[in-house]
Amino acid sequence: MINRRRRIYEGKAKVLYEGPEPGTLVQHFKDDATAFNRKKQDTIDGKGVLNNRISEYIFTRLGEIGVPTHFIRRMNMREQLIREVEIVPLEVVVRNVAAGSLSKRLGIDEGTPLPRSIIEFYFKSDDLEDPMVSEEHITAFGWASPQEIDDIMALSIRINDFLSGLFMGVGIRLVDFKLEFGRLWENDMVRIILADEISPDSCRLWDIATNDRLDKDRFRRDMGGLVEAYQDVARRLGILAENDRTGGKGPVLVKN
Questions:
Q1: CATH superfamily of 7-85+225-236
Q2: b/e burial code for range 206-239 (CB count within 10 A of at least 16 → b)
Q3: Which of 41, 96, 102, 227 lies at a 20 to 30 A Cα distance from 35?
Q4: Domain 86-207 part of CATH 3.40.640.10
Q5: pLDDT value at position 250?
């Protein structure tokens, strides 16, 4: 069935196919795991299924509070029906706690709470390894208008506030996360909406009590147990059945 569809785009962890109706796409979640701009790659059974369900849950909750997103509905274990958008060529990183590249750049110990949440922009380019850019770069090169930057900032802050509370409620600290946005064209009007995914692939999630990593850092740093960590996140969010055991034949997902 997948092979008969027209492939629109393939990224590191997802494939986009032509949707069943005009203005829609099918977003397929792969089991591929990559890090350091694909310098490290592997296939991890079950990762795509978990990311699909976790992202579905988060996008649905964000939609309930009025955040506009590309998500329409989940189609099956690995696929979502989404609105077709023109992706803004920026990765927007929201940081609440020092970790990863921020710690390396500024010499701040990982785990140090930041004085306030920080929003960073990176130009989406695998060839250039997604360089960090400023608002001046963005407007000068026409990647987004000043109004679009304002909209992206406002949505990012709102998403951060909501998700920080959501994860805090299940014993997880939202350290940082990546967002992508797109332009949705509606007749002659265009608006900025949330696109891509929000999952442990795109977030740093630490257990509040132990600081255990529950995200892709387990793959980046050869810590192991990535699927088990993602299952833990899904279980805490109520997506996985409480009595499901990690390992075995894969996750048993709660039916909606």
A1: Phosphorylase Kinase; domain 1 (3.30.200.20)
A2: bbeeeeebbbbbbbbeeeebbbebbbbbbbbbeb
A3: 96
A4: no
A5: 46
